[in-house]
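Changelog note: in this version the structure field was regenerated for every chain. One regenerated record is shown below for reference.
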Amino acid sequence: MYKIQLLNKISHLGLNLLPKDKYENSEKMDNPDGILVRSADMHTMELPANLKAVARAGAGVNNIPIQKCSEKGIVVFNTPGANANGVKELVILGLLMSSRKILPGIEWTKSLLGKGAEVPALVEKGKGDFVGPEIKGKKLGLIGLGAIGVLVANAAQSLGMEVTGFDPYISVEAAWGLSSNVKRATSLDAVYADSDYISLHLPYNDNTKKMINASVFAKMKKGVRILNFARAELVNDTDMAAALESGSVSCYVTDFPNEETLKMKNVVPVPHLGASTPESEDNCAVMAAEEIRDFLENGNIVNSVNFPNCDLGKCAAKKRITLLHQNVPNMVGQITAILANEKINIADMLNKSKGNLAYTMIDLDNEVSESALKSLNAIEGMIKTRVL
């Protein structure tokens, strides 16, 4: 029986994929095999000794101690693309709100309450204060063409915008899904210089921290509109406030409001609604449950953020052994030598690496002896082994 701890409420559509004869799940669980989480902060959590996998029902994993998990041989999964449509729809709404002054117009109209029969005439008189341009024919620059970026690009192009995207790491799958009418930018500077609107769709890391700052505002068109539905930390708030005050930036739409952004003029602060749709929550839960089940039962890794993807299909061999280890020379040679010395025959094998970590899956024709397991675990750089 596999034990799954739930750190957040997880959609029943996901939990229903974990058969009750094989899985037990609860918010309070001693020494679980796996954890399903959404936004709960795990950084101060003591990781259970038996924990093998964490599946985040969502794309961002800032709430999970990745390095600590890697050191302990805990595979961390996320669910890229599961909430992409929900975010895409909000980005399109953000484009419209950044242009048409919809939000301040609504707030002003509500202030007319109590004016009685004068309201229609006041609306006609005051509507000129909320004039804004159409998005059709305007240039949208996308930084990042992952699952969300591709959907935004295609949707904006279908609405008549001229779309340019920049992503030096675009995947083959994303490239196949991208409209042929979307232009490719050769540099970030090209996106900055040519765009009327810029939408951010890239991860937060040391290289992207506060990348939208005073130095890049100087490269942009005056009056550019910027949308951030990716990560708050991508934007330097102090520099953004100055750019909005000077008119260098006409509007900033962010899904990550804070005390500083709420003080700024011409900001549309959205309360982190990107994936807040029932469809997104269901999709994320289903994908997370499928990932953690496939790993626990078959050892396959799909959509991990710390270990390499590695899929040997359903476990049909007499025994399958999986090995999480450092990506160092002669590791596979040492593993196979130990199995050969124990007269254990290899039926199939797969080895993949990701940075300084690697994963090896081996289907065997024999049972795995205790002496073989002891020798495998004694290899320098071995993190964790499992026999399925």
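Spot check on this record: Residues 105 and 128 are 10 Å apart (CA to CA). Residues 278-298 form the longest helix (21 residues).
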